[in-house]
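Why do we care about 3D structure at all? Because function follows from shape, and shape follows, mostly, from sequence. That is the central idea of this module. The next example makes it concrete: a single protein chain, its amino acid sequence, and then its structure expressed as C-alpha cells.
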Amino acid sequence: MPAEPFTTVHGRAAALREDNIDTDIIFPARFLLITAREGLGRYAFHDRRFAGDGQAIAGFVYNDPRFRAAPVLVAGANFGSGSSREQAVWALHGLGVRAVIAPGFGEIFHGNCLRNGIVPILLGREVVTALMDRAEAGLAFTVDLAAQTLTVTGEDPIPFAIPRERRLALLNGWDETDQVINTHGADIAAFEAWQRRTQPWLHV
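And the structure:
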C-alpha cells in the first residue's frame, strides 16, 4: 500500500548501542499471528520495553519520555538481520520511526524499509558511534531525503545515498505498483497501443 510521502524528518533520535538486533527483537515471533498492519507499534521491541508482568523496563531508550516519539533511530551493525518478517518494519513505523541509521543492515530488512516509508541510512561505524553520542545528548536530527543529507543541530550535513528509484518512490509515497506506472507509464501505454493495432483479438 502507498505510504505518506517522505520529504524531511526532524526530531530527536533514539540510540541503541548494540549490534545484531534482529527482526525477532524488533518484532517477536509470537506476535506474527496478528494480521493487521496498523497498531503494530505497540509490539516494537516488546521484550526490551516490557517485563513479564507488563511493566515498563527502566533504562530502555523507548521507555525514556525524551525519546519515546523519536522519529530517528541510531543502531549498531547488522540491524534487522534474521528472518524476513515485514512486520518488523511495520512495527517500527507504528512506533514513529521514519529513518534508521546504522553501519549495516539485514539485506531483506533494508529492502522492506525502502518499500514501507522508512529511510535506512548506511554510514561508517565511527560516524554512527558519534551520532549515538549526539542522540543521547538530546540534539535534534534532520533527515532531508531530497538532498540526501543528515544534519545534527549545529553541525555540518552528512551525505548519504539512497538508490534513485527508491528515493523517488519514497519522496512521492509510491508503492511498487505506483512506481512502475509513474516511471514506465509512457512505455506501457505505447506497448498497449501497439498491441491493440497488431493483436486486436487480445482486447476483444
